[in-house]
Amino acid sequence: MNKVQLIKLIIICVFASVVLYQSHKVEAQEPVQLPKHAPAKTDGQSLVVQLCDGETNLEVKGVGPNERLDPEKAQTVSNQLMAQWLAKQPKEVAEAWLKESLNARTEAKTTTQENKASTTGQEQVVDFTSRDYKSWERELAKEIAYGDQIFHDDKLLGSTNGVSCAMCHPHAANTHPETYPKFQIQLRRVALLRDMINWCIENPSRGAKLHPDDPKMRAIEAYILAQRKGVVIEPGKH
Prior knowledge:
The chain is mainly α. Helices cover 45% and strands 8% of the residues. The chain is built from 7 helices and 6 strands; from the N terminus they run αββααββααββαα. Helix 4 packs across helix 7 (215-227). The longest helix is centred in the N-terminal third of the chain and has 25 residues, at 3-27. It is extended.
């Protein structure tokens, strides 16, 4: 190889390196640093529970900042916080929230999940056996049941103050998983359902957020989605 050929080869290598570097930059996006609520004001002597909006909070007198509420007390605190939040909402928003919560309570699902291989009367041609379906139904039911358990159990959820998901969202009411992904003001970006689950874990419940592949996160998502079975999917709806 003569000198000219060597220079050409070096130029080609440098150019190729630049192209590869630029393409790598496009693919490898930096992790997004999510915003955090400013902590609520406190005298440092009492537990403060804060809702997802970062504005509604309640100081629980007689309970230390690192103490855990028993379920009954946690539900009372959750009710008081929700009452505060609803009082700040437009009348129609508050009424819609309360109506859905009431419906969820009175129409609590029996959790029987039927995994039929037909839709609107049109049979789907498949090679699956009834044993396959039974196996899948069993696995799905287990996942949903585990999510149900976590949703109602503050300790399983990882809450540090005794507040569970169900205390603000009875039977997953007002979670609306069918509207995700959508832009969420709190997060300042398009959020997935799991993003909002973590947001609620970190804020009212003061727990550590779950990895997207954490079995608990997967189960909670399965449970919430199962409660909205049959609802039309409308990503982006507010």
